[in-house]
Amino acid sequence: MENRSSNVTWHERRLTRDDYQRRNGHGSLVLWFTGLSGSGKSTLAQLVEEQLFQQGWYTYLLDGDNVRHGLNGDLGFSEADRRENIRRVGEVSRLFVDAGVVVLTALISPYREDRDRVRALFGPADFVEIFLDCPLEVCEQRDPKGLYRKARAGELPEFTGIDSPYEEPLAPEITINTGRHGVEECVVRIISYLRQHSACWRNRTLAAPVVAA
Ligand SMILES: Nc1ncnc2c1ncn2[C@@H]1O[C@H](COP(=O)(O)OS(=O)(=O)O)[C@@H](OP(=O)(O)O)[C@H]1O
Ligand SMILES: Nc1ncnc2c1ncn2[C@@H]1O[C@H](COP(=O)(O)OP(=O)(O)O)[C@@H](O)[C@H]1O
Fold it and tell me: Which of 5, 28, 78, 109 is labelled catalytic?
């Protein structure tokens, strides 16, 4: 994006990310869930967030559906609007990470280039791409909001997976087939990943999940 701001000065802050992290007792990073509508992004992001929250972690969930009610309410589903949607959520995530928070995002984020551009905003350990690799047929069968039915009926144009593309990640940190594995197992796998990559977690430990989905 072209930066049209001029005559603006960057202010060094007295408090840094490191200060926030030390106060919180854990590192901050982004868990970026991506996948088709109905692949389970909102369900899993909420459950994983709950696990962290219950253990005293500072967390925040940015769900595409919700962000589109406010900050991104001016955006539709054209390619350009989706790109801007991802860019903005990426920038908001950066602010949260700077504030020492573990951010979870649940957006389709269909374009590889956009996800990679967000990744580039962060250090290598601070961006965890979680690809919910669920076959279109399964998502369509679930159709939790009835949107696939509408799209097939021609009432919802540019629907991802039907007449708008989804580009699979090439090297995500985590890939889970949510058509094959149950909700509980998926949560366990994500938390296990975080436990194993404990370099991010400073002096705080993370217990194995107790899930009642
Ligand atoms: N045309 C079209 N295509 C895809 N999705 C649509 C569309 N129109 C509305 N919706 C609803 O919007 C949710 C996706 O918003 P996102 O911000 O995640 O989309 S994107 O990342 O900008 O592609 C998506 O939420 P999820 O089902 O949770 O993925 C839908 O509820
Ligand atoms: N392994 C799984 N992971 C996540 N959701 C699952 C799984 N198995 C079944 N589901 C169901 O699939 C639906 C996914 O919907 P949702 O979380 O809204 O997806 P998305 O946010 O990707 O559109 C929910 O009804 C959820 O209960």
Answer: 109
